[in-house]
Design a protein that fits this description.
This protein is of the alpha+beta class. The chain folds into three domains: 47 residues, Ubiquitin-associated (UBA) domain (Helicase, Ruva Protein, domain 3, Orthogonal Bundle), CATH 1.10.8; 173 residues, 2-Layer Sandwich (Tetrahydropterin Synthase, Chain A); 41 residues, GTP Cyclohydrolase I, Chain A, domain 1, CATH 1.10.286. The protein is built from eleven helices and ten strands. One of its GO terms (cellular component) is cytoplasm.
């Protein structure tokens, strides 16, 4: 049995983010040498990267960064397999570093981001693969959002006090208004709209809703003459549920979000909402 202590195991876990049993095995193999054990875990981790590709990453963190003048901002979701890794400092440091990189470099799209250099001679994809190996879990970066040129606000929500933020919102306003930005971002976090305006809803989606509404009304035995009114009412209900400007405002549900914005003299240009794993 190699000569190492519980403190050595704890230190190795802090250095690598690996599981307790993996750390014990690595210390056994290294004869209790922590530095060698780190190398052993990294080598084994790199070999396991391909094996982890088929696993599901449903935990993780959302990170938001806003410029000091609030003229730009980014939102990044980084996913992992377990909440144990998600709440760890190493995973959160990786998520923060990627968000800072997106903020600094303004990549054109996800492919551009993954191939960009985050450290000397290391692409973001390599950086994530390294984290994958070190943490022993599948780490996934498959979406981010960036707004620039207007007034940007954000909101992050923790679904559990011991986890990093699991829901994040980035909202872009045409006019500067910190209170409205905060309220609208919180509303988006809670009500999860899919579209900004009715015009943003794809025509095929609207047509599908109309077909479903009509078929449902017929199944319910509604009078033929009432079908057009019923269908329009149900499509309007779809808009109220899915379109931000049509939704009842979270803090004052007798008003729509559009009415609140109009009263404040503010226009929403765009938004992004990420919920980890959703």
């Amino acid at each position: 049995m190699a000569n190492f202590t519980a403190a050595d195991v704890k230190k190795l876990r802090e250095l690598t983010g690996a599981g307790m049993m993996d750390c014990k095995k690595a210390l056994d193999e290294s004869g209790g040498d922590v530095a060698k054990a780190v190398e052993i875990l990294r080598v084994k981790g790199q070999k396991g990267v391909a094996k982890r590709e088929s696993r599901t990453a449903e935990n993780g963190a959302v990170v938001a960064l806003i410029a000091d003048d609030q003229a730009s901002g980014v939102l990044v979701e980084l996913k992992c397999e377990t909440d144990f890794v998600a709440k760890g400092e190493k995973f959160q440091a990786v998520a923060q570093a990627i968000a800072e990189h997106v903020f600094a470099t303004a990549p054109a799209d996800l492919a551009d981001l993954l191939t960009s250099e985050i450290e000397a001679g290391k692409s973001v994809k390599d950086y994530i693969d390294e984290a994958n190996a070190g943490l022993g879990e599948k780490i996934v970066l498959d979406r981010y959002a960036r707004f620039a040129g207007a007034y940007v606000g954000s909101y992050l929500h923790r679904t559990s006090p011991d986890l990093p933020p699991q829901v994040g919102v980035l909202v872009e306003l045409a006019e500067e208004n910190a209170d409205v930005a905060k309220d609208v971002a919180q509303h988006i976090a809670a009500f999860a709209p899919k579209f900004l305006t009715r015009e943003d809803v794809p025509a095929d989606v609207v047509e599908s809703e109309r077909r479903i509404a009509e078929a449902t009304a017929r199944e319910e035995g509604k009078p033929e003459g009432a079908l057009p009114r019923i269908v329009e009412g149900r499509v309007t209900g779809f808009y109220k549920e899915n379109v931000l400007l049509d939704q009842p405002f979270a803090k004052e549900n007798k008003k729509t979000v559009q009415k609140v914005l109009t009263e404040a003299g503010v226009t929403v240009k765009g938004f992004a909402r990420f919920r980890v794993g959703a």
